Amino acid sequence: MELRLYDTLSREKRTFVPIDAKDVRMYVCGPTVYDFAHIGNARPVIVFDVLFRLLRHIYGEAHVKYVRNITDVDDKINDRAARDFPGLPLNEAIRKVTEQTGAQFHADVDALGCLRPSVEPRATEHIGEMREIIERLVKGGFAYVAEDHVLFSPQAMNAANSSLPRYGALSKRSLDEMIAGARVDVAPYKRDATDFVLWKPSKPGEPSWPSPAGIAVEGRPGWHVECSAMAWKHLGEHFDIHGGGIDLVFPHHENEVAQTCCAFHRERMANYWMHNGFLQVESEKMSKSLGNFITIHELLKDWPGEVLRLNMLKTHYRSPIDWTLKSLEESAKTLDDWYRVAADVAPGEPAASVVEPLLDDLNTSLAIAALHSLRATDVPALAGALRLLGFLSETAAQWEGRKQQASGVDAGEVERLIAERTAARTRKDFGESDRIRDLLAAMGVVIKDSKEGTTWEIAR
Ligand code: AMP
Ligand code: ZN
């Protein structure tokens, strides 16, 4: 099986060749845990879950390591903690915010049918590795100390006469242009406008750790160095795939590459850089001010997680997605149908017609089209392919039962009405049987008559 992946750095689709096929390694930037995750945040989680499953399918479950971090030190977390728990010492309030938000995130993405990554490192548990990277960068001349901060110098990186990558190569930006376009209000401790923070001093009460590079006051890490440290600790200096949303290419991933390659004298951090496109809602950018900001948690009250998952995967991961109610309704209908025909069938090998498009840079839209064709031709292969994609976690009865529960329809009452209708039909009282059918329709129940009797389901 040949897997091809689009790499943001080389800007081409390339055959995926793992560094070690017995230990395929992938890192994806995870959430900053300060608030409910929104449906845009769900996109990378679902997309890279599909890639994780596909890699496990190709290389074997024991041979794929997926690391997705939890950013639990960040100014947004501090602000939230101070606002939500004003009576508590800041550190305790922060712990409450990160614990609650982290647990909510897990509940949300579990419901979306995503496997837990192999490791979910927390930033606060990797401060030692961050300090180590920072020390190396200062010693190497790539970073400097100023006013209790440590700053990384992209200009020092690009001036180094070595096999390091160029700063700006990932995001295709030239450092000269970045310097020319820099804002005027650059922090006074920066030598150059393009320098970015590796470490900064903490204010009293804020989370703080002993600082690197001989700085006397305690401080905390910048966001970018957190990912370099966690990826290093769990995947090594050089690994296979690094993923995240397209908005992370610059500055976050550009800075991660810079830190890791300069600290470890490497030409590369990851061999393939993968980025998902953005999600908008009903053709508008999602934002709190527009009032169209939807959390996964809210959506899960109205839709099963697998419906959200299917809806996400109908679009290729690199294209923008327009998240609409209409599309969600269609996804729900499709899943109802697949559950009915395939959930209780012993799954066969996932169909080649589904796996092949996935091997072509995760073409899930084509894979889903193939699922529709399989429904008519090979239901066991459909069931196998759906499971590979993370669907059919329930039985057909559980799925239907949940729908009934969510609709508030009383199954006993429906059964009673259907029995009355059958009796009316037997005595040829069609006026009465039509009346009962309309009554059921008004309750949102659709009935189907066949030789075996009458079955029913909740209409979507
Ligand atoms: P954040 O919490 O903003 O750092 O985002 C966490 C992850 O969600 C990152 O990989 C982002 O790129 C991704 N992300 C955030 N907003 C969206 C969106 N509207 N569409 C797709 N991905 C998003
Ligand atoms: Zn990151």
From TrEMBL:
Keywords: Aminoacyl-tRNA synthetase, ATP-binding, Cytoplasm, Ligase, Metal-binding, Nucleotide-binding, Protein biosynthesis, Zinc
Chain ranges for the short sequence motif 'KMSKS' region as given in the UniProt record: 285-289
Any single Gene Ontology cellular-component annotation: cytosol
GO process annotations (BP): cysteinyl-tRNA aminoacylation
Annotated ranges, domain tRNA synthetases class I catalytic: 16-331
Keyword Transmembrane in record: no
Cofactor: Zn(2+)
Chain positions of motif 'HIGH' region: 31-41
GO molecular function terms attached to this record: ATP binding; cysteine-tRNA ligase activity; zinc ion binding
Residues annotated for Zn(2+) binding in this entry: 29, 227, 252, 256
Predominant place of localization: cytoplasm
Catalytic activity: tRNA(Cys) + L-cysteine + ATP = L-cysteinyl-tRNA(Cys) + AMP + diphosphate
UniProt-annotated binding residues for ATP: 288
Compartmental location: Cytoplasm
Uppermost EC category: ligase
Assembly, per entry: Monomer.
Protein name (record): Cysteine--tRNA ligase
Species, as recorded: Bradyrhizobium amphicarpaeae
Source species taxonomy: Bacteria, Pseudomonadati, Pseudomonadota, Alphaproteobacteria, Hyphomicrobiales
